[in-house]
Amino acid sequence: MAKVVKVRGSKTGPVMRYLKEQMAQEEMRKILNGEYIPVYTGDAWHGSSGPIRKREEEEARIAAENRARHAAQEAQFNRNAITLPDPDPPMEPIPDPSPAPEPAQEAQPEPPRSGGWRNIVFDSQILSSLQKCPYYLNLAFMRRLGVEHKAQALESGDLLHTMMKVFYTLKIQRPDLPYEQYIEHSKQIGREKAITLAQELETSEEVSYHFEEYCKFREGEFWIPKAVEKSFTILLHESEEDNLRIYYEGIIDLVVDSEAGEAVVDHKSSRRNMPNPNIELSNQFMGYCYSLGINTAVINKVGFQKTLKPAERFTRVPLSYSNAQLAAWRDNTIWWAKQLAWFVDNNTFPQNFTGCDKYSGCIFGEACKTDPGAAREFVLENHYKELPAWNPHTRDKELDERIARIVQEA
Ligand code: SF4
Predict the structure, then answer these.
(1) Ligand 1 pocket check for 349: Cβ under 6 Å
(2) Phi, psi for residue 3 in degrees, rounded to 5
(3) DSSP designation for 363
């Protein structure tokens, strides 16, 4: 997840040879991310290199498969565009008075130089954590400490996302299937996932029920899905002056052609209606839009409240950003990334006590209430667990294979 990697010039040669062949930003990210594995030793960061030839072959194979799949999806998208009904009134396009968008920067091959680049790779969670509390960022993303089991709300959200992934992938790849089969296959995979979760099966059944209700409510909608769980990495900043490259990455639940044009979609489940008047001021949504060069994001809400009618539980919140807003987000993000570089270089991560009470209380409250030094280390080692690394390009292989089988056999 958190990757702050110092790449030495001598190790970048093979990567750059590969980039010249592929010139694809996702592959670049995989190589950069896969070859250098950051290891935190308590006082320094080190990079370790691994064999890349096998990775090159494997990446080339995956890239070829992806190209074929995307071509098939594009063809299918065109067919869907003709046949899908449009029951909803079109949304008014939102005027954008700002100048033409600056296209998201593509990853570029490294210019020849003697020294190495310092690379910072981060995502919206890391950025938001950095802005909330640098000390939290160090614990959660550099030392990768956390609590073992996710809170119930997170597990229910995960389960819903899994079923949504199956549902929209099948809609793209098997448009010939009856609508009920999209729901049935998604629920079946949801049941398989449910037994691996810490939450009660009854809770998972409830999530499955709401998912089915959502699908029924949305049957015949205009949305044409174009990509599911789309991962990206873009180069936000590169400067020889500070020898710094800043990459931003993420994974988007869904990209659709909607009533308002192309939009990035984020599924959000909740048990309560929590109005947020500033919902659009979000690193997650602005980052998605900037990175994909799309000006509209949609929060696809799935409420788990049984007392509300479907129309009240399944709502969509469109967020629209001007190009000027997205450019300002980029500049702001670059400033924070440079701040992160300073924190890392100086091994200094200050506490921000205004972050402690956010989101039902910070999980590191117990540690921060303890004396710094050995006592706090004891709490950190005994109350928290080291969690596995995460990156947006790492797929749930098992789930992907399961979906691929359904696509072939259904
Ligand atoms: S408890 Fe407060 S100071 Fe400690 S990591 Fe969390 S937000 Fe930062």
Answers:
(1) no
(2) -125, 110
(3) T
- Encoded tokens for 393: 């390009």
Is the Cβ–Cβ distance between 190 and 209 less than 8 Å?
A: no
Model's pTM, two decimal places? 0.70
The pLDDT value given to residue 17: 52
- What is the rounded average pLDDT of the residues 82-107? 40
Mutate to test the pocket of ligand 1, among 362, 369, 383 (most ligand atoms within 8 A of CB): 362
Residue identifier of the C-alpha nearest atom 1 of ligand 1: 365
141 CB less than 6 Å from ligand 1?
no
| Alpha helices for 235-346 (secondary structure H) | 283-292, 310-313, 323-345
Interval 305-341: pLDDT, tens? 888 999 999 999 999 999 999 999 999 999 999 999 9
Q: Tell me how many helices (H) and strands (E) the chain has.
A: 14, 11
Q: How far apart are CA 171 and CA 177, in angstroms?
A: 8
What's the pLDDT at 154?
78
**Domain count for the chain:** 1
CA 149 – ligand 1 centroid, Å: 20
Q: Is 356 in the pocket of ligand 1 (CB under 6 A)?
A: yes
Rounded Cα distance between 230 and 110, Å, is 25
Domain residues for the domain of 349 are 5-409
Residue 360 has pLDDT above 60, yes or no: yes
Decide: 304 in ligand 1 pocket, CB within 6 A.
no
Residue 34 has pLDDT above 50, yes or no: no
